[in-house]
Write a structure and sequence with these properties.
212 residues, 5-stranded parallel sheet, 49% helix, 9 helices, alpha/beta, globular
Length: 212
């Protein structure tokens, strides 16, 4: 099968991460979600913990001086090229290198923008009804409904600011993606099947995805 790149944007609690994992299995792709943070850390020489603390957030430099020095690679703290934009560049370079190695599913982190010039890409955004999202977040993080709603709103504000700042597009708006879908309508498994069918048509694959 021709190498393909699937980019997944997702609202918090939409099941986007799970759907991405299922798509990776169906299309025999390597999945990159949190794994990108490790790749970016290797690319930059900074600790992976630093990327984890600032994952998909704009303005993380504000917290720089609250981070203990041992989190940084030797001498990196004092390099003149240390900046928010350069840390984003490290992650972007990691995304490109991963895409060069074969078929991939990328979850968030503006991969759709970083790989925008590649013809073998498809970009999906997964949303869900707020009530369903709150239920998932409550279960995942052991929160009550009020706390879960705050968690979602705060996290999505961070994601939107990060995406909009670096891409010049609007996070979650249909014009930024090839397909937007509400996972509440069909459920997680049927939503993944729908997306898989769309991807096969997008790339002209005749054979069904694996395990279907």
């Amino acid at each position: 099968m021709t190498p393909i790149i699937i980019n997944i944007g997702r609202q918090i609690g939409s099941g986007g991460g799970l759907i991405a994992k299922m798509l990776a299995k169906d299309f025999n792709c390597k999945l990159y979600d949190k794994e990108l943070l490790n790749l970016a850390a290797k690319e930059s020489g900074f600790s992976e913990k630093f990327f984890e603390q600032n994952d998909e957030q704009k303005g993380f430099m504000k917290s720089l001086f609250h981070i203990h020095l041992p989190l940084f690679g030797e001498n990196n703290f004092y390099k003149n090229n240390f900046s928010q934009e350069n840390l984003y560049q490290f992650q972007s370079d990691a995304i490109r290198k991963a895409a060069d190695e074969g078929s991939c599913v990328f979850v968030g982190r503006t991969a759709d923008y970083v790989l925008r010039d590649r013809k073998n890409t498809v970009s999906i955004f997964i949303t869900a009804n707020m009530d369903h999202r709150i239920q998932r977040v409550c279960k995942r993080h052991n929160l009550d409904r009020a706390a879960a709603r705050k968690y979602i709103l705060r996290g999505e504000d961070d994601r939107a600011s990060y995406y909009n700042y670096y891409t010049g597009k609007r996070w979650g708006y249909s014009e930024s993606y090839d397909l937007c879908i509400n996972s509440s309508l069909l459920g997680i498994e049927e939503t993944e099947r729908f997306i898989a069918t769309f991807i096969r048509k997008r790339f002209g694959f005749d054979a069904p995805a694996n395990n279907k």
